[in-house]
C-alpha cells in the first residue's frame, strides 16, 4: 500500500524513523519542523519532502507521526487538528501523552496510536511499545504501523497500562546501560588504561555480551554462571556488588522511572 508518512518534528528520533522508511516499499515521507534546516537536510538527502506549514503536513499525510516535545504538542495540534482527514492515523512518540489525550487533541477526527521508543532506534536497534487499542484503527493500519516501526528495531504491542512500565524498563533503559558503561570505563582508567582504550574495551564488552545473550538462548543467570568460577575473580566482584545492594538499586531505579512516567502522564 502506497502511503505518505508525515512527521511533525524532524529531530533525532523523527529523523531516525524517516531514515528507516528507506527500507519500506511504496512509502514516502513528508516533514515539518520549525528548525527548517533539519527538514532541508532530509530533503537534500532525498529522504523526505518538505511541508511548508503544519496544515499542509496534516492535509498531505496518510499517517502522521508526532515527534515534538510534550510542552509544544498542544499548540501544534491546534493548527493541525482541523486539517486531519478521517482516514489519517496519528502516531505519537511524545512522552507521557495518553491515548485519551491524543483523542482530545485530534478532536476524535481520526484513529490514534501511542508509541514509546528508545534511543537505539537511531542505529536501527530500538525497542518500540505500540498501543493499538483505538477501536477506530483498522486491521491493515495496525499491521502497517507495526511494519513501519519494525524497520528500526523490535516492536511490542502492549495495552496502555504497560506503557509506564515499558518506559521504566526500556525507554529509560539505555541510560542505565550507559551509566554502567561509564563506571566500567572509569575503572579501566583507574587501573591504568588510556581512556580511549578503556572505552573501546568496555564498548566491545557490552556489544559482545548482548550478542551472546541474544544468540545463546540461555537465561542471563546461566551465562553469568559460566564465567563465575568457585573462589575466582568474578565471584569476588559479584559478591562486592551484592554487598552494595547494586541489584536492588537497579530494580528500584527502573521502578522510580516508571513512577515518574505515571506522574508526567497524569
Q: Estimate the global geometry from the Cα principal axes.
A: elongated
What is Rg? 21 Å
The SSE order reads EHEHEHEHEHEEHEHHHHHH
Q: Based on DSSP secondary structure assignment, what is the total number of beta strands? A: 8
Number of self-contained structural domains: 2
Q: Which strand-content bin applies to the residues?
A: 5-15%
Summary keywords:
Rossmann fold, elongated, 2 domains, alpha/beta, 266 residues, 14% strand, ProC C-terminal domain-like fold
Task: Describe, in plain words, how this protein is organized in 3D.
With 266 residues, the protein is an alpha/beta fold. It has two domains: 3-159, Rossmann fold, CATH 3.40.50; 171-265, ProC C-terminal domain-like fold (Orthogonal Bundle). The protein has helices spanning 12-20, 36-44, 54-60, 70-80, 99-106, 139-150, 163-171, 173-190, 195-216, 220-226, 233-243, 246-265, and strands at residues 3-8, 27-32, 49-50, 63-66, 89-92, 112-116, 126-131, 153-157. The chain has an eight-stranded mixed β-sheet, with helices on both faces. The longest helix is centred in the last third of the chain and has 22 residues, at 195-216. It is elongated and about 70 Å long. The protein starts with a strand and ends with a helix.
Amino acid at each position: 500500500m502506497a502511503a505518505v508518512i508525515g512527521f511533525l518534528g524532524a529531530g533525532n528520533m523523527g529523523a531516525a524513523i524517516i531514515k528507516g522508511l528507506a527500507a519500506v516499499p511504496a512509502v514516502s515521507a513528508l516533514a515539518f519542523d520549525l528548525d527548517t534546516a533539519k527538514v532541508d537536510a532530509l530533503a537534500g538527502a532525498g529522504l523526505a519532502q518538505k511541508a511548508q506549514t503544519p496544515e499542509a503536513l496534516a492535509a498531505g499525510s496518510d499517517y502522521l507521526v508526532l515527534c515534538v516535545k510534550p510542552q509544544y504538542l498542544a499548540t501544534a495540534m491546534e493548527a493541525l487538528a482541523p486539517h486531519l482527514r478521517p482516514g489519517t492515523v496519528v502516531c505519537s512518540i511524545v512522552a507521557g501523552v495518553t491515548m485519551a489525550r491524543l483523542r482530545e487533541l485530534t478532536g476524535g477526527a481520526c484513529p490514534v496510536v501511542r508509541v514509546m521508543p528508545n534511543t537505539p532506534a537511531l542505529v536501527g536497534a530500538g525497542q518500540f511499545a505500540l498501543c493499538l487499542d483505538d477501536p477506530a484503527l483498522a486491521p491493515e493500519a495496525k499491521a502497517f504501523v507495526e511494519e513501519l516501526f519494525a524497520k528500526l528495531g523490535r516492536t511490542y504491542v502492549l495495552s496502555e497500562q504497560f506503557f509506564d512500565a515499558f518506559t521504566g524498563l526500556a525507554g529509560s533503559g539505555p541510560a542505565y546501560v550507559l551509566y554502567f558503561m561509564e563506571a566500567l570505563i572509569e575503572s579501566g582508567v583507574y587501573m591504568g588504561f588510556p581512556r580511549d582504550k578503556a572505552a573501546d574495551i568496555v564498548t566491545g564488552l557490552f556489544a559482545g555480551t548482548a550478542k551472546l545473550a541474544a544468540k545463546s538462548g540461555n537465561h542471563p543467570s546461566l551465562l553469568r554462571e559460566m564465567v563465575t568460577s568457585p573462589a575466582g575473580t568474578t565471584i569476588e566482584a559479584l559478591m562486592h556488588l551484592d554487598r552494595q545492594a547494586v541489584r536492588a538499586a537497579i530494580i528500584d531505579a527502573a521502578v522510580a522511572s516508571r513512577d515518574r512516567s505515571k506522574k508526567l502522564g497524569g
